[in-house]
Amino acid sequence: MTKVLLSVHVLAAIVVIGPITVAASLFPRHARQAAASAAAPGEPGEGRDAWIAAFLHRICRGYAVAGIAVPVFGIATGAQLGVLTDAWLIASLVLTAIAAAVLVLAIVPGQRRMLRPAGGAGAHTAVDDAADDAADDGGARSAAARLSMLTGAFNLLWAVVVVLMIVRPGSTTGA
Question: Does a structural domain hold residue 71?
Fold first, then answer.
């Protein structure tokens, strides 16, 4: 059973976290280019970057939900192996929780703000102000830079988790 749980955990990490890291990394560039082409209509390929940015956002949003499988199967595997109290696993879980928070609380909402068109209908709110800021090229550039930084932190957190999973400091397996 342990091998099955570990296999599902690793496959889920590859199939779910991989696309999120790629999509989140590509999003700022396409969103910034979409904002620039919206400021200069009539450019060749106009709308292409906006479509790509929206698609990348949907990938991040959808895979974020599926990403819950990674820690669920990781915890189940850790329980089977009897390592739930090992420092490397606890550190991995904390870093995973931080990465999830960065994705759900900062990256996905930041992407949504960059995609929201300026001057939308309804009451004017602080979120609308952020969208208005992102609509101009300078605002889009700074919003894209923030998202790039957050995505880099997200990716770095996952890289550290992967290293902890492989090296397992203090492990007695001889690896």
Answer: yes
What the block records as the tokens of 160 is 């550290």
Rounded Cα distance, 95 and 99, in Å: 6
- Domain range for residue 97? 2-167
Of 38-42, 85-89, 93-97, 130-134, the least confident: 130-134
Q: How far apart are CA 111 and CA 18, in angstroms?
A: 18
Q: Is the CB of residue 28 less than 8 Å from the CB of residue 147? A: yes
173 assigned to some structural domain: no
Question: Interhelix angle for 48-66 vs 108-115, to 10°?
Answer: 150
Provide CB contacts within 8 A for 15, sequence distance 6+. Answer: none
Residue written as token pair 């189940």:
76
Q: What is the pTM of this model?
A: 0.81
Residue 52 lies in a domain: yes
Sign of the torsion angle spanned by Cα atoms 98, 88, 14, 157: positive
134 pLDDT above the threshold of 50: no
Helix, strand or coil, per DSSP, at residue 118: coil
Rounded average pLDDT over 85-96: 94
172 lies in a domain? no
Q: Are 120 and 133 within 8 A, CB to CB?
A: no
Residue 55 is classified by DSSP as: H
Q: What is the pLDDT of residue 47?
A: 83
